[in-house]
Specification:
By secondary structure, this protein is mainly beta. The chain is built from one helix and 29 strands.
Length: 347
């Protein structure tokens, strides 16, 4: 049933039931809209983006993110060993942490292991499977909050995080994440939507990718950073000049200026461009096998490894174990501030 809060020109957000968790908590789906025709759907399970519809010519719209139509499908997607984390907020630490351990204040912290001997994307549960409280919602903005308890996945300190999704009349989706902890901890959040400007039922192979980066992180065979950097001059992953999206990539691109564009993707089919801006030191770009044919998705579509591309703006994976990487430590009383903007333009 539609609900209006501080509406403008009769725009309103829509709230509807999306299912129940095993503990009885009801999950809701919120639909936000703008005058320009953008439409965003968010659920408070994993603070996940379900759909993002962008207006095209002649009143048509294209849904540019992958997603599911039921809570049961979101929960089921975490069953495979290589969960896709479709549309979710990832935390407390996005990416891999080598041997699931790090040192903080001269103490060794042993985290839970969910990726061989390592931890990835916050552990077995993490923020992506959490029930988030909705603290504020309007026709074009929603703020969700999650309290990660002290010791959750063995991370130190009670951490309170708020995520705000906002739509603008300039065809932008703004993702703002803020966190505070009652003691020193580490943090690295990201928004894990898979984008496809041709539409979520299509393949990304006909789209072009641009990345404003000169280096990627060198990694081991298990994709753990070695601490070294690889120059992109002459490299297959040099996207400083736009070229076809790769059919397989799982790499961290180093960013040097938050005031510049980080990455972009282009669709000739829909004459659409999406640019990514962020205050984070890297964008991890992922195209791969986590979207498998055994997961039913929106409109009864079978997603596959080329259904979407992720732009995971974040700190470096395994940063707590490399002194020369940007610090991932959040001190008691300080605030973690993460902002990413996805801007859509018609070509």
């Amino acid at each position: 049933m539609p609900k209006t809060s501080n509406s403008q020109n009769n725009l309103a957000f829509i709230k509807k039931s999306f299912g129940f968790l095993s503990n009885g908590k009801e999950v809701f789906c919120y639909t936000l809209t703008t005058l320009n025709g953008m439409e965003l759907e968010v659920i408070n399970y994993g603070a996940s983006i379900v759909s993002l519809k962008i207006p095209l010519e002649k009143g048509n719209k294209v849904d540019v993110v992958l997603g599911f139509e039921s809570l049961e499908d979101y929960i089921a997607s975490f069953s495979p060993n290589n969960a896709p984390y479709i549309g979710a907020i990832v935390g407390r630490y996005a990416g891999r942490i080598n041997q699931a351990q790090f040192n903080l204040n001269n103490q060794t912290i042993l985290l839970t292991k969910n990726h061989n001997q390592h931890q990835i994307h916050g552990g077995h549960e993490g923020f992506s499977k959490a029930f988030w409280d909705v603290v504020k919602v309007d026709f074009n903005s929603i703020t969700l909050e999650y309290c990660s308890k002290n010791g959750e996945e063995n991370f130190p300190g009670e951490l309170i995080t708020q995520v705000t999704y906002s739509l603008t009349e300039d065809m932008e989706l703004i993702v703002s994440m803020n966190s505070k902890c009652i003691q020193d901890t580490i943090i690295n959040l990201t928004q894990h939507s898979y984008f496809n400007l041709d539409g979520h039922s299509e393949t990304i192979v006909n789209q072009e990718l641009f990345v404003n980066s000169k280096e990627i992180l060198e990694t081991t065979s298990e994709n753990i950073p070695t601490g070294k950097f690889i120059d992109l001059i002459g490299h297959d992953f040099d996207f400083s000049i736009p070229k076809k999206c790769p059919t397989s990539i799982d790499n961290t691109f180093v960013l040097t200026n938050e005031n510049e564009i980080a990455a972009a993707v282009f669709s000739k089919k829909n004459k659409l461009k999406m640019s990514v801006f962020t205050n984070q030191p890297s964008v991890h770009i992922y195209v791969g096998g986590a979207c498998s044919n055994n997961i039913k998705c929106k409109q009864n579509i079978n997603y596959h490894s080329l259904s979407g591309i992720c732009f995971e703006t974040q700190n470096f994976p395994d940063a707590p174990n490399h002194e020369h990487f940007p610090s991932a430590v959040l001190k008691k009383g300080e605030e973690y501030i993460h902002k990413t903007l996805f801007k859509f333009e018609k070509l």
